[in-house]
Amino acid sequence: MSDWKSVTLTLGHSPDPDDAFMFYAMAEEKIDLRGYHFQHILQDIQTLNERATRGELHITAVSIHSLAYVLDKYALLPSGASMGDGYGPMFIVNAGHGLPEDATEAERRAWLLNKRIAIPGKMTSAFLAAQLFLGAEFDYVVVPFDEIFDAVRSGHVDVGLIIHEGQLTYKRDGFDLILDLGVWWKHRTGLPLPLGGNVVRKDIPPDVRRELSDVLHASIAYGLEHRDPAVEHSMKHARGMDNPLADEFIGMYVNHYTLDYGDAGRRAIRLFLDEAHEAGLIPQPVELEFVE
User: Fold this and answer.
1) What CA–CA distance (Å, rounded) separates 208 from 145?
2) 2 has a pLDDT exceeding 70
3) Rounded distance, CA 179 to CA 99, Å?
4) Would you give the DSSP letter of residue 65?
5) Is 160 helix (H, G, I), strand (E, B) or coil?
6) pLDDT in tens, 163-216
7) Catalytic residue among 13, 58, 65, 164
8) In which element (H, E) is residue 67 found?
9) Can you give the residue range of the structural domain that contains 151?
10) Residues 84 and 185 sit within 8 Å (Cβ to Cβ)
11) pTM for this predicted structure
12) For residues 198 and 189, is the Cβ–Cβ distance under 8 A?
């Protein structure tokens, strides 16, 4: 174990307020890091997913979708989940260019299938959820998540599939909602929509993995217990949000599921990936391996 305490462990996460909140106590050394040293690497989730397929980072945030491609190299940590419990990625359009509010789910699906949609990455959970809703084949283009509003506004695409803080700011920024995939999933399954998690490399010994898991859990717990300074720390990553809005966004994705998936969270992941495999959207069944 001591050898791993002489290594600087690479820790990948998104440059977003919810991830910054989770890792606040680690970044500022507010908790006992058990002698481990971390290099925080901030990149968008699609890039982190791609790096995980190559096993480049010791610990990293990933999309749940990407577990289908990385579990040969990584085990899933029980802490760090981003679950959309009745909310999640959203299809949005320029205000006034959508559907009547009373349009049915079938009408919304048919309408979306005739549009060009900007997605935030092919390995994101947002894209997999969109495929489960629309079917495998629809017209899409990959756009960095923080450029999707501009792509819709300019007419480069008809519809944007938005993640992160856009779920709270879309109306203020001149867009209308077509469908919230988290609402759709919750209504259909009764479960939260599993979006993101944290993984640790399997070449790290099991006892070290458990200690690292404990450190991550302690960091999340510290942020939840010291909310104001943790939110303040996160503000440098809060694009277009004031403190109250950032606090609301963090509350959506850092909560009891983040401390531990629990039974509902684990069932949600298995169902999400089982349905994806049955629909031919991922290449093989996924056997989850959690660090316990």
Assistant:
1) 34
2) no
3) 10
4) G
5) strand
6) 988 888 899 999 999 999 999 999 999 999 999 999 999 999 999 999 999 999
7) 164
8) helix 67-70
9) 90-189
10) yes
11) 0.93
12) no
